[in-house]
Request: fold
Amino acid sequence: MPALYPAIDILEGKAVRLEQGDFERQKVYDADPLEAARRWVDEGARRLHVVDLDGAREGRPVNLEHLQRIAAQSGVPVQFGGGLRSVRAVEDALAAGAWRVVVGTVAFTDPRELDAMVDHAGEQLRIALDVRNGFVATAGWMSSTSTTAPDAAEMLKLRGAGGFVYTSVDRDGTMLGPDVEAVTRVCRASLPNPVIYSGGIGSLDDLRPLASLPLAGVIVGKALYEGRFTVEEASRVL
Reply:
């Protein structure tokens, strides 16, 4: 069954949610990301997904201090991404307490660096497949490639990473429902590597079709912050 990953996106030191990756459409939910982490853990979260939005935009980790605090004080494993475009950045994130690291841009721009990251992090590394308008987006979702997610999964699944994190950018932060058809294709293409899904979850009904897929996890952000359902309720459905 898929595991639930409450999302904590950090921008300028605060826990926020963006809509469709647009930095101009943001809403602040917690002045301190650690408070969000504690809330989700208190509700029953067994792991967290933390994104350094500043890092994604700048191409280097910016919020490692917040990662360190969350990893040390939440008491649950933390999956971390955003701006991890070098082996040194991956090392720093792991040293700060990340349980897993998620890399995106480098997988499509620098194969040698990706191989070096895999050599260093192995199963602790996940590759982000962030899809906008049908194609993989990079550089904090601000640039696009000509590669579809299934093609990318086929191309990258034998590189040694522990799996993929698939995000429907078009649906992210909208709560309009998941792209079940697209993630089903990605799951098929990525086998035997596991896939975690993110994007568009707005209700418990949105989780039910995902629970029947061979997913390793589902990332949920805005719906939790907006009180559409609780961590416990989502975990029960999944």
About this structure: The radius of gyration is 16 Å.
